[in-house]
Design goal:
By secondary structure, this protein is α/β, with parallel strands linked by helices. The chain is built from 7 helices and 5 strands.
């Protein structure tokens, strides 16, 4: 079931992104018939590798089964989903691989590439929770989790007045928009 949802999201994202980029290919140095070069920054090793591998496999499957312009995936590993790693991967994908579109998996990765991607007018598809809605070159595929976290805090507060939080120290959990600070703030307000 999760793989079907992931496949549907990736297929939907690529269905939107590829035609949108078709107009920009006329101004690029490559003809429109050449494959669209898509950079993917996702965890291909480490704790979240199964998700990154699943995303890239779903993208390849969508490419193999959907008609239209072919896609060449250029994948960079972001094993810890840190923004600094993602920024380095972005620079390699853009300067060496010359990607025309970028797909990020982790929220922190998207935050690490949005500034330079926007400056270089490279569209970004973010497959995980978005940060602040300020980037015009970003297609966000999942809603903000803050409302969910608020509801979860309220539901747990009805039964428990004290909680211990066990979470990874990944930036996505502990950063300013991470689930741990969001949940802690929501729970402490009650």
């Amino acid at each position: 079931m999760k793989l079907r949802i992931l496949f549907a999201l990736v297929t939907f994202a690529l269905t939107i992104a590829v035609p949108a980029l078709a107009d920009t290919s006329a101004t690029s140095s490559q003809p429109a018939t050449s494959p669209l070069r898509v950079g993917v920054i996702a965890p291909m090793s480490g704790d979240f590798a199964k998700y990154g591998i699943g995303v890239t496999r779903a993208m390849q499957l969508a490419n193999d089964t959907q008609p239209g312009r072919a896609i060449t995936l250029m994948v960079e590993d972001n094993p810890t989903c840190q923004s600094a790693e993602a920024a380095a991967a972005f620079h390699k994908l853009v300067s060496i691989d010359r990607v025309e579109l970028l797909v990020t998996f982790c929220t922190a990765a998207a935050q690490g590439v949005l500034g330079p991607a926007t400056a270089q007018k490279i569209p970004v598809i973010q497959l995980t929770e978005p940060g602040p809605d300020t980037e015009s070159y970003m297609i966000k595929m999942m809603p903000d989790s803050a409302p969910f976290v608020d509801h979860l805090a309220q539901a747990l507060f009805r039964k428990y007045k004290k909680l211990a939080i066990v979470a990874s120290t990944m930036e996505v959990n502990t950063g300013p928009r991470g689930n741990v600070p969001l949940f802690t703030k929501a729970f402490e307000k009650l």
